[in-house]
Amino acid sequence: MGNTYLRFFRLMSAINNPAFPTLDDTSRKILEVVSAEAFLSNRYLTVKQLIEMDDLGSKANLHSRLHGLVESGYIKLVPQSDARFKDIVPTPKTKKYFDTLSKALKKSLEA
Q1: Is the pTM of this model over 0.85?
Q2: What letters, b where the CB count within 10 A reaches 16 and e where it falls short, cover 67-106?
Q3: CA nearest to 29, candidates 1, 4, 65, 76
Q4: Facing residues of 46 across strands?
Q5: 100 Cβ neighbours under 8 A, 6+ residues apart
Q6: How many CB atoms lie within 10 A of CB 51?
Q7: Torsion-angle region of residue 68: left (phi > 0), alpha (psi -120 to 50) or beta?
Q8: What is the pLDDT of residues 83-93, one digit of tens each?
Q9: Alpha carbons 79 and 35: distance in angstroms, whole number
Q10: Per-residue pLDDT reduced to its tens digit, 30-46
Q11: Contact 65, 57 (CB under 8 A)
């Protein structure tokens, strides 16, 4: 019954790729929300929009995790024409991360 997810979990655990350091739950959720908006809706969230998402965590925690994702190379903060606002832009590393997850998911479905 939950075997597909468990196979997926095992595959992801087996991927010991130093290019993808382990993300904590909050960072992973931020990356998922930002990437879904960018890759599926062709829009970038702003830092302000993300910080207003209370269900992800406190403002201080979100700021901290956001800067951790920048330092890890998963996202860039790009100033808009009004420099007070910054777009959160996923990097090629993020695309590669989700491609790796997608391949593992497909493989777990085939087994």
Answers
A1: no
A2: ebbeebebbeeeeeeeeeebbbebeeebeebeebbeebbe
A3: 65
A4: 87
A5: 15, 17, 20
A6: 18
A7: alpha
A8: 889 999 999 99
A9: 18
A10: 999 999 999 999 999 99
A11: yes
